[in-house]
Specification:
Length: 391
Amino acid sequence: MEKYGQYRDKGSGIAPFFPIAPPPSSPLLLPWQLFLAFIRIPILTFAWLVWLCAIRFLPAGSLLRKANQWCLLGIPGVWWIDLQVDNVRRGSLSQTPRGRLPYPGTIIASSYTSPLDVLYLAAIFDPIFTQSYRNSRLVRPITQETALANCFSITNPLELVGAAAAATAAGQKTLPLADLVKQNPTRIIVLFPESTTSNGRGILKLSPSLLSAAQDTKVFPVSLRYTPADVVTPIPGWFEALRFIWRLNSGQTHCIRVRIGKATTMARGLSLSASPSTTTTNSPSPSGISSSSPSQARSRATADRASVGRGSFESNFFDTLQASPAQKVAGDISDDEGNGAVTEAERRVLDAVAEDLARLGRVKRVDLGVEEKARFVEAWGKGGKVGKGRK
């Protein structure tokens, strides 16, 4: 693995792109795993066909839509959900005020590690999913099927046939989050600000797409982690999709650890980051935005990354490598589409969201992103071919 050392975070040594090995198990369990997969996969396929042929056309939020999504989670053994909300005691979730949980007209900034992210968020919130790009403030609304395909950086087959292809071509339009929220006031919007999946051991650099939200729109950071952690998909491709299906269906049970952070708004974040009264303290502001100078913030971030070993979770990547030319966006956070460069105050807002995601997931931020992931996957593919040749 030393030849992939350049794809580790320099401060902490965290490698967010490596695939996660399944937990060790006895060969004697293989017949039981085959039995589970043999039983579950046909039932799961049937439930998915029911979704594709009928349920997905029902109105958003309907009981049948959510029931179908829970079937897609429950059939492969995702039975345990450990849900916790910031500043809400365990056991009192039913008494949680409305503003503590995502509701229509708000945005979820979610971690991005596995197709289970999409299924869980669909089962709970039935939201509108979006695709972010690493140097653009615009997002592209996508279907749940496309969101699942993006986890493996493959093209949604439904987008290649008939009327779906025409609808997809029309849906290639990108727009600011503020416009999307305004057009869909009764829906929750889900954003994956890392723009690509990882193995969950760290939070990647965020896309500036979050900055296109309206100043008063609430943004909820949501972290999802899994036990066992081998259901993450950091490597793209159809083969990895098949491997994910096997690991998901051959395991006894799976647990999802969900953490929902305190909501913030762009207006609050920008005002706090620009407030001169907060520039003399190193403690985090209520919204989680660092108020120190840029050099101090960078030094502290580097020290934080160096003080922590590997994270406790794993994740997935690659929704851009096989993207269509219309979807590919090159460059860093500097918008070539006339959306303006990211200011220092806006950068602190993005840092605050990233810190919230890292805190909720009990991991650290890493100075790696989509570009580094693309190079890693290319090197990983070449390494695999060399390995096969030696055999």
